[in-house]
Amino acid sequence: MSANWLGVACAAHVRRGRAAGFMQLGHGRATPLRRVSPGDRVAYYSPTLALRGRDRLRAFTAIGIVREGEPYLVEMDGGFLPFRRDVDWLEAREAPIAPLLDVLDLTADRRNWGYQLRFGVLAISDRDLRQIAEAMGARLPVADLPVRPAGRLLRRGDGLAELRQGLVGGDVFRPAEKGAQRGERIERRREGEGELDTFREGAGHQVREEIFAGDGRGGR
Q1: 208: β partners
Q2: Domain 4-143 fold
Q3: Nearest to 122, CA basis, from 57, 26, 11
Q4: 87: closest CA among 63, 71, 67, 58?
């Protein structure tokens, strides 16, 4: 299963990596990069604009998917030999952390949340990754969306756009069965106190599984 990582680096370094399609951790150390695997999702938080600078930024500055391959060594001017990994960076805007401080598992109810960032990288929850992606306006590929456990109830009126972005509890995506017609019920089974109905959204779309509470008839 893919993991989620939050790297910490100044914005100048992160922007350089975004432009060239790579990531570095711990000032180019190999050890933290070996914890990361192809297919993992990674976001970057930048406390400052420049290394050792006093201009604070405190924003998420990149989000992407780690490419296939191993960490590799790069020779730079001045004898600096950092290790890097290649990343498919998503189109995203930089987003301040302040509006998310009471929302993220990483920071909520943690007065000294910045202390855990001192090592330059840490694992974060699926929920936090989704919140960061939403704040940055990034669209994670459907195949890379963490699946939330069944059992949560969807609200009536939730749009397919929200479902695809993984922002609504209880949504699960999988390839649609061939030959299914628009609106056709493919599967129906009991799920907790409600019923789980699977419907075809239309040609070329994903199958959406919805959980409805109530009398067991799956009424809409």
Answers
A1: 173, 199
A2: ph1033 like fold (3.10.590)
A3: 26
A4: 67
Only one residue has tokens 């998503």, namely 90
- Residues of the chain short of pLDDT 70, as ranges, are 142-220
Quote the CA–CA distance of 216 and 202 in Å, as a whole number: 25
> Looking up tokens 């987003």, which residue turns up?
95
Q: What is the pLDDT of residue 59?
A: 97
Q: What is the pLDDT of residue 119?
A: 87
- The residues of the chain that CATH labels 3.10.590.10 are 4-143
Residue 34 identity: R
DSSP letters of 180-205? PPTT-EEEEEEETTEEEEEEE-STT-
| Intra-chain end-to-end CA distance of the chain, in Å | 34
Upper half-sphere CA count for residue 73 (Cβ side, 13 Å): 5
